[in-house]
Request: fold
Amino acid sequence: MFPLQVTGVLLDPISILILILGALIGVFMGMLPGLGGTITLALLIPLTFGMDPLVAFMLLIAANGGTSQGGSVTAILLNTPGKAPNAATLLDGYPLARQGRAGEAIGASAAASALGAILGVGVLVLSIPVMLQLILLFGAPEIFWLGIWGLSVIAIIVSGNVLTGLISAGFGLLFAMHGVSRVTAGTRWVFDIPEMLDGIPLIPALIGLFAVSEMIKLSGEGGTITEISEDTAIGDGTLAGMKQVLVHKWLLVRSALIGTFIGTIPGVGGVAANYIAYFQAMQSSSDPEEFGSGDIRGVIASEASNDAKEGGSLIPTLGFGIPGSASMAVLFGAFLLHGITPGPLLIDNHMDVVTVIIISALASNIISSAIIIGLADHLVKITRIDVKVIAPVVISVALMASFAISSTFFPVWITLAFGILGFVMIKVDMARVPMILGMVLGPIVERNFFRSLQISGGSLDIFFASPVSIALIVLIGLSFLLPLIREHTGTEEVISQ
Amino acid sequence: MSPDDHRSDGDGTRGRLPMSVDAAFAGAFFVVLLGYLLVLMNVARTYDSENRLFPLMVGIPTGLFIVAYLGRLWYLGLDTDSSSARFDDLVDDADEEVIEEVQEGDESVMPRSSELYVAGTVIAATVGVYVLGFAYALPVYIFLIVYRAKNARVALLVTVGFLAIAYVLFVVLLGTEPYRGILDLPHPFYGWF
Reply:
């Protein structure tokens, strides 16, 4: 579980600095609306190109953890969540700030986030031995169906519209097939462009789809966070807030378990985890009418769930190669950039990377909590920056990052093209995550499809031969029913109460 | 809220255009996607059986999904009743004043003139980089955009700040030489690594 080389990397002072730097970047980016974990990872990934993979993932996971905590600061102090999963935090966080108890809210948020993350990662660690046994059941046909299931779940659940989600995933698979096929060695859809022989580069497409498109949208909207809310200083009380987390320890545990569970379901996380934990806290209390007017329990529940979700989302990501969240889908790009194939064999083949990811997820939340408690008063000034100042800088960094990957200009055109495409997709409410996932999983799915046919001598029976394959086919079918289930039960009822 | 959003009706829907225009825009986008897909499928027909198998397996259902969506769009108009839109509405009810400010996706489908302007500047900046190189095009791009939004002093500060960060990050730390453009103009940044 802890190979020697991993221990060496983790104990290196430079590695600790990398973790702190990543957490700082994440907190900074998380406080700015539209610059959540997904865009942060999209911009950081190409910058890790020359790094040792273990160090690269330390930076990326630390940054991803920091964005979550950064969003809680703006939710509490300014009534505006930096990213949507912090949305429930402001329901009680901001009223607390208005009562002069911002410090208490920040302290509770930071402590609940850190402890929630520890619980979520704990569940992840406990599930690894189970996953190690499960992956033995996966051969080529099972990996094929697993990829199809991952795509269908993300396309159907995460998107606002089932059809557009499936179209997005379909185009992701088609984009992945451009260039020379590593399976058949044939050349597909090159259109006489020499650079297209290597296919559409994933990282520049990812940067365009998530970073550039969001900046175009934000720039068009303009403004700053503090145009709509008053600035509120933190003051004292952070220690009192942290103590409140221990007072409500069972609420913390329940909320963290809810977040972890929801995080394991691909595409459901985010806002759902935040709100479901919040409403279970409200429903289980003897005085639910206190919620929404500055009850510390609301902050504890939402933040514990929000950060535990990250640990939960790592379970399907690392164990089965199905991203548990949008940022995990982007993280797949980092895996590929560093020569690591995501999928059920990841834990078996790259235990060092998995270990670093787990430790980094733990450490980054603790470090981010300390940053928040120590620097929130100063960091919140960042939110005064006009998005029209941020956007051209982010776009410029995105273009340079795309060029830096291969020192050729073609990826920059790809970033531009996917940036415009991503912007239009946002406007027509078409999810972008399925497209990226299609581009990541496409080669894996196709490779295992043809490998299965080779094993069976061309017979399709191999795809229906094992219980695991049948189970995955059933799950694919259920994925199509999930929007109907969500429509009539669960989330809608909880929120409407 | 965007200062040039004169179409806001004040109840939080923020500049919704007539549904027919939004549906036309969405429809046009999916027609373009369908056209691109048809081109891909037409080319794939010329490949050998092994090379065209997977493209057809993916392309045909995707094409059917697009046709189904266009048909739905034609018959029902834009989908304002998707599960996530309903979920978003419920979230909005919980805190109407604030949550809607950070919902992903604008409620107005048709891009605003400001968004089209920004998209145009991004395209122009990329073309500028292709011709002049990063060291010339990006500082000009950043300066002009920030100058238009703020003033010359802030624009200069941001531009110089970006140049410093970009130099440290890409030239010093990553060791990459910034793209020089097809004109290959001389610049003091080149050769400093």
Residues 225-230, 491-497 of chain A have pLDDT under 50 and may be disordered.
